Amino acid sequence: MAVGAGSQLPESRGLRRIASAPLALFARLRRGDAADAAALGKLGLVVAAGALLPLAFAPFEWFWLAPLSYAVLFLAWRHARPAAAI
Fold this sequence. Notes:
The chain is mainly alpha-helical. The two termini are 31 Å apart. 59% of the residues lie in helices and 0% in strands.
């Protein structure tokens, strides 16, 4: 079936739910939910650890960052549901 300029591809419900999750988190943060603030802090820590991971390889050779970055990721996944650990 050819897809023309006016037709739309069907979206899966899971993709829409994953794409809308950050927006829902920020909306709950505006209301002042402490649990969501903790989740956002954990997300920021995981993103920072992932951003530092390339420094463990050449040319920087900060080898100690690799296990530290993975440890942060695995600790964040420790009690996560499988859908949340994507």
